[in-house]
Design goal:
This protein is an alpha/beta fold. It is built from ten helices and six strands. Helices cover 39% and strands 14% of the residues.
């Protein structure tokens, strides 16, 4: 038991509380006219805004930025930990805000990379399709992208494949929100240098309890534990040279 305890068994990282739930997230909302389609009631865009409302509320205190795009990409709000402010901008989104048609995901990725220069994070694309002509140029290993799909366009799978990104879709419960947060947090923990420097919790101290129990059981009437400790200490410490005292007899010197 003592050998195992001193070996330092461990199975859990010693992660400070302030490192939890810090994964930055950039939400990029597709505002092309197709987002007004009503196959996802009431419309794709309104359904997305309702879901994003729930997402930012549960990410309170965590940095989240907002981008919008169609034929061009634009920064709406830099990273903020204020869910009310972020939700105000989300609920004001509409397909009439960007006049240029298209789905310029490449411009979104460039914007996201500039925002995430100082910290690893995740880009969440909320979209119903992709520009097929752009797909061969989209791959970027420096950025984690998640695709939250609305509708059933076959280009969504092509987009996710081109970006090497997990593909999810809106759900009636919170499974989609759990999916987003799980991927974002895992990516952050894997990429953040602070996480790599974390120590592991030494669980060997818990073995002190069975060791103490064995020590208590070992106490028997007639045992002299104090002398046992002295003997053990004497075996561990290096011997000191004896010095003769001229005022002592040879027998006294021998005893000393």
């Amino acid at each position: 038991l003592g050998a195992i305890a001193t070996a330092g068994p461990t199975w859990q990282q010693d992660r400070p509380d302030f490192l939890e739930n810090r994964a930055p997230l950039i939400i990029a909302v597709d505002l092309s006219p197709s987002m007004d389609t009503a196959d996802v009631p009431p419309t794709r865009l309104k359904a997305a805004k309702q879901k994003l409302h729930d997402l930012v509320q549960r990410r309170k205190g965590t940095r989240t930025a907002l981008l919008v795009y169609a034929g061009s990409a634009h920064l709406v709000l830099p990273a903020t930990d204020d869910p009310e402010l972020l939700d105000t901008f989300i609920q004001a989104l509409g397909t009439d805000l960007i006049s240029k048609s298209g789905k310029d995901v490449a411009a979104v990725i460039e914007q996201a990379k500039r925002l995430l220069q100082q910290s690893p994070g995740t880009l969440l694309l909320v979209t119903d399709g992709a520009d097929v002509a752009q797909l061969p140029t989209l791959k970027d290993d420096s950025l984690q992208v998640l695709v939250l799909a609305l509708g059933s366009s076959p280009t969504l799978k092509q987009l996710a494949s081109a970006l090497d990104a997990p593909l999810g879709s809106l759900t009636l419960n919170d499974d989609d929100l759990d999916w987003v947060e799980r991927h974002a947090q895992q990516h952050f923990q894997n990429a953040d240098e602070q996480q790599r420097l974390l120590q592991w919790k030494d669980a060997g101290y818990w073995l002190c309890w069975p060791l103490l129990l064995l020590a208590l059981v070992s106490v028997r009437r007639g045992w002299s534990l104090n002398w046992g400790a002295v003997l053990l200490l004497g075996l561990l410490l290096p011997p000191t040279p004896a010095e003769a005292n001229p005022f002592l007899t040879p027998d006294q010197q021998g005893r000393w």
